[in-house]
Amino acid sequence: MIDLLVAGGGPAGLATAIHGALAGLEVVVLEPRPTPIDKACGEGLMPGAVRRFEELGVAVTGRPFHGIGYVDGVTGLRAEARFRRGPGRGWSRTELQAALADRAAGLGVRVLARRAGEVRQDGRRVWAAGLTARYLVAADGLHSPVRRGLGLAVPAAPGRAAARYGLRRHYAVEPWSDLVEVHWARGAEAYVTPLGADRIGVAVLTSEQAPFDVQLARFPLLTARLPPPPGPGTGVRGAGPLRQGARTRVAGRVLFVGDAAGYVDALTGEGLTLAVSAAGELVRCVRAGRPQEYERAWRDLSRAYRTLTSTLLWARRRAPLAGRVVPLAARMPRVFAGAVNLLAR
Fold first, then answer.
1. How confident is the model at residue 269 (pLDDT cuts 50, 70, 90)?
2. What are phi and psi of 13, to 5 degrees?
């Protein structure tokens, strides 16, 4: 019988598989999409994520960046915070995905081109995709079919603020900063991540559904630095709604990791750090025969991320406060640096 059956072969699923294989477990990953898998994301690995991937034996390449810069998208006012414990890395999602897949394959992890489909379980095992395992790990993304199939998704509350979405495009241009820049404008943020000597990624987070170029027009200073795109919508990846609730991270012998475990927003860029850290805790709990302890471990790991992200979202949705985010960060550099390095650890 398989020890861990992982539904989803993205970074969270492959990180779980690698942790499991290193712990001596037999792991099989279910992923119907061919590798490498692309996804709309800012593609900036914070220093903590870099360290955790390297601990798994994944050689992290990409372009170093040394902190976070907040920029007023219209006036150009800046606030900068440098990392204290080494650089982050701008790494395209497809390159990250390929490196994780290679590492997992080298450890003997099998990847099957299947979907999990219906999930059944009893007190000793779980069945999915025609396979039997001791545990199933759902790492199947924001809109997790496993979470939905088990009735564990939390519907949006009536009257909740408008949903947020992410859009991303790459540009063939030399990075102009050794920071990830976060440009703030009315109703949206644009993240500029250096990915290589002649490539950057621009990701826009917004609550308004409109084409990428319409969203980008909110940031005239940024737009002036970018080459014209090949055509409307070319190379744009999208995702959302971003906020997704989960009733629990542990449902019998089914455990959730990554975005499938519940997601607040991409505002602070900590999704991958949390995913790979939680994957390690999940495997530790399973290997000890105490899977129920993973719920508390996940809550402890994600507390800073959930608190800071929720606070920034609360401010973002109030126009008078949203306009003060960059000026306050510039006036209180120590506070800004402390928040950035809390998430970079």
1. confident
2. -65, -45
What does the pLDDT look like over 222-268, one tens digit per residue?
999 999 877 766 789 999 999 999 999 999 999 999 999 999 988 88
Q: Flag whether the pTM goes above 0.70.
A: yes
CB neighbour list of residue 4: distance below 8 Å, 6 or more residues apart: 16, 17, 20, 25, 26, 27, 28, 133, 134, 135, 136, 137, 283, 286
What's the residue count for the chain?
Answer: 345
Distant-in-sequence, close-in-space partners of 307: CB < 8 Å, separation ≥ 6: none
